[in-house]
Amino acid sequence: MNHQMHFLGSPGQVADEIRAFDWSATSLGPIEGWPPALLTTLRQVLATRQPMCFWWGDDLLQFHNDAYLPILAERVSSALGQPFREYWSDVWVGVEPFVTRAMAGEGTWMENLPLRILRNGEVQESYWSFSYSPLYDDQGVIAGILNVVTETTNAVLDRKALQEAYQEAQRHLTEREQHEEELKLLNRELAHRMKNTLAMVQSIVTQSLRTATSIPDAAATIGARIQTLAKAQDVLTGMSVTAAEITTIAKVAVAPHVDDARRIEINGPRVFLSAQQALGLSLAIHELATNATKYGALSRPEGRVSIRWDKQADDRFTFDWQETGGPLVTEPTRRGFGSRLTERIVSDLFQGQAGLRFEPTGVAFSLNGKLHSEGDFEH
């Protein structure tokens, strides 16, 4: 082996390939004619275990060391001595700015540069950290580019997966916190509703006993009123923790008293009531329907009941009950708990005015008040 071959240093795969390569067919010519600067650079690159390659000459022909071979993948047997721009055409657009700067004498560094590279017959996403440095010939003229490189594809993809997992975990934590807040709100609302219901039951029992003429009469009245409360609670539970639509409330309250659906007209827009207002209005409708069945329009086959409501601006709310076709109505000399519940309690719940009218054509009830705002549903 002549002295020009001493640059190959220790034996290795790339050194053997360089010996066997026909350099006379390239712009560099035979190895015997290579300049000392190229030989020195080649010795240094072959001697390092860091993946390195460099491109030299007018065509920027490729050289690399053994540590660089895994990066080449399926190109491992064809990269040596190939022109940079043609051979690496799949990544040229991404690296050309760094090539230009290195050939102008400026060293560059890039971390995790994304490149679309041809591998295994398909274009794949890859990431690279590398530095391009100018290489000089024996006259001090830039003759090539040194590339010290590390592929970071796995590290970048692992980091992305970790970030996505972290974001997913954060999303689950946020959802859990929201769920816990909803549970707290639910528990507060249920506790508040329980207190309201117990207070209403206590009032029903106390007042019904006070005005009853007998124990059986009191038991029947109390049972009917508490059953109405229970049905209203079922409606609230089925629709929402904090609100119920009035149409369902009205239909449930009158259902036990209707033998023909055509005898009761229910008409009004879609309106949601707070839990407390729904319970109170349900009891009021129950009292009105009970009295209509015993003494009013529903006590005769030809009797009719009209239930109407409306919602105006600023949550103003009106509700009307009108009986027709029943027996002649006269105002009672004594008001019972049912009448007081229908008028006073409902008016308080709706922060307005409510009143019974005993008209010759039939009993009428009117409510003019205000709906609770959405915020009022939370307690």
From TrEMBL:
Enzyme class label: transferase
The species this protein was found in: Rhizobium wuzhouense
SUPFAM superfamilies: PYP-like sensor domain (PAS domain) (SSF55785)
Catalytic activity: ATP + protein L-histidine = ADP + protein N-phospho-L-histidine
Alphabetical UniProt keywords: ATP-binding, Coiled coil, Kinase, Nucleotide-binding, Phosphoprotein, Transferase
Coiled-coil intervals: 159-196
Gene Ontology MF terms in the entry: kinase activity
Protein name according to UniProt: histidine kinase
Pfam families in UniProt: HWE_HK, PAS_4
The protein's Enzyme Commission number: 2.7.13.3
Ranges where the Signal transduction histidine kinase HWE region domain occurs: 189-270
